[in-house]
Each structure stands twice: as C-alpha cells, then as structure tokens.
Amino acid sequence: MGSRILEAKGVKKSYTVGDVTSEVLKGIDMSVEEGEFVAVLGESGSGKSTLLYILAGIDSPTEGSVKLLGRELSSVSDEELAAMRRREVSFVYQFDNLVPHLTAYENIILPLRLDGKKAKECADIVSDVCRFLGIHERLNNLPAQLSGGEQQRVALARALATDPKLIFLDEPTGSLDRERGRQVMELLERINRERGVALVMVTHSAAHAAYASRKVEIEDGLIVK
Ligand SMILES: Nc1ncnc2c1ncn2[C@@H]1O[C@H](COP(=O)(O)OP(=O)(O)OP(=O)(O)O)[C@@H](O)[C@H]1O
Ligand SMILES: [Mg+2]
C-alpha cells in the first residue's frame, strides 16, 4: 500500500455533436493508491464511463493530465499504451465485449496470446484464475452458451489473467440479477483483498459501492465527494 498508481488532474472532456458542444467532465482531480478499491457513483449521463475511459487511456481528455502507473498518458506512445493494457491494467466494459466466436477459454487467454505467450504457458496461467472464479467447467462454451453471470465472470477472468496491478470496471453487475450481482461483488472483494489488485469500479448501486474502501461521487461533471 501507499504508492500512487493513478493520478488525474484537472481532467475535462467536451463532446461536439453537430454545432452543440457539451462539457461532460469539468475538472476532475482524483487519485488511486496501490491495492485500493474505489467506487465511482453518479447518475446516468453524469460522465462515469467517460471518466473511466480517460483514466484507462482508452480515450483522451480535452484538458488536464492522467498519470497511470507513473507514466503521463499524453506522452506515452500507442505501442507502450497497448503493452500497459496487455500487462498491467485491465478493463471490464459496461456492455459485455467477449468475442462471440471464441470459447470462454479462448476469450480468457486472448490478452496473453496477443502478448506472445505460448498455448501451454497460457493454460498454466489461467487454470488457477478460472477455478478461483468458478468457471472451470464452462471453458468450452461460446459466450452465447453462458448465463449472464458466467459471461461476466469470464470477462473478469480475462481481466485477471494478465495479473494486472489495476482493473477498471464499468458497472460490472449492471446486467445481472440481485443474487448474481452480489456474487460478482464478493468475487471482486476477494480479488482486491487476496490478490492486492486495485479496482476502480463504476456503479449505480449504493449497496455495491459499499464493498469498496472509498467512494467518489460525480455530479454535473465534477466530483462532489
Ligand atoms: N462519443 C460521444 N459523443 C457525444 N457525446 C457523448 C459521447 N460519449 C458520451 N457522450 C455524452 O456524455 C455524457 C456522459 O456519458 P457517459 O457514458 O460517460 O455517462 P455515464 O455516467 O457512464 O452514464 P450511464 O450511467 O448511463 O452509463 C452523456 O450525456 C452522453 O450523451
Ligand atoms: Mg456508463
């Protein structure tokens, strides 16, 4: 604990559609320490996903700076950023983005394969993660042959396979019923506690935010508490 792995300063983001420009983020300052579990709350449309994309380097801010794992994102090359995202930082999207024609297993090992790991090596790395998440008996299923909760756990397994320092999660329980949602939250709590992985999770749910060690609330493009 103690080392700062994420620091955003004065982050602003505007979108222009037609001749209308709207400022979605109006100056966000936020930081995350190693091993922390931070929940980001806010109403629909308040800019939570936008902020998460910017913090993860998937999108860039109109103004302001983001330092991720000690590197200023505006001066990191595309290749370096891609390597960081394969090895050190994972992202679980709000809307499921498993590759439909790959099995659960092939989806999970995809980032490792992209990083040049051999098939055998991948099998060794992920077998532990798949057991941890309780999906080891579903690995040959295609995403369409999995329940919503199983798909979400496969997405988590893919995020964990690379042994990242930090995982961004955009409403990881959004499409799940209450019981599945609770199970995913308990898994996330274990991932954070037992593996020391820092989590930055967007959620609508106050009950799910309660699993985090700290809450950040966005309103009208600013952090209000
Ligand atoms: N690519 C884009 N072009 C134009 N406007 C956008 C774009 N992406 C997001 N916005 C606008 O930015 C605002 C914030 O969107 P964002 O997806 O960050 O909200 P959110 O807080 O994640 O909402 P939700 O809880 O519904 O997921 C919305 O008003 C949206 O219309
Ligand atoms: Mg969103």
Would you list the SSEs in sequence order as H and E? EEEHEEHEHHHEHEHEE
What structural class is derived from the secondary structure elements?
Answer: alpha/beta
Order of adjacent strands in the largest pleated sheet: 6-7-8-3-9-10
Give the cofactors and ligands.
adenosine-5'-triphosphate, magnesium ion
Mind explaining what this structure looks like?
There is one protein chain. By secondary structure, the chain is of the alpha/beta class. It has a single domain, classed as Rossmann fold. Helix content is 35%, strand content 28%. It has 7 helices and 10 strands. The strands form 2 sheets. Strands 6-7-8-3-9-10 form a 6-stranded mixed beta sheet, with helices on both faces. A 4-stranded antiparallel beta sheet has the order 2-1-4-5, with helices on one face. Helix 6 links the parallel strand 7 and strand 8 (198-202). The chain is globular and about 50 Å long. It starts with a strand and ends with a strand. The relative contact order is 0.20. It binds adenosine-5'-triphosphate and magnesium ion (MG). Residues 15, 17, 24, 42, 44-50, 94 line the site of adenosine-5'-triphosphate.
Question: What attributes characterize this protein structure?
Answer:
225 residues; alpha/beta; Rossmann fold; 6-stranded mixed sheet; 10 strands; globular; binds adenosine-5'-triphosphate; binds magnesium ion
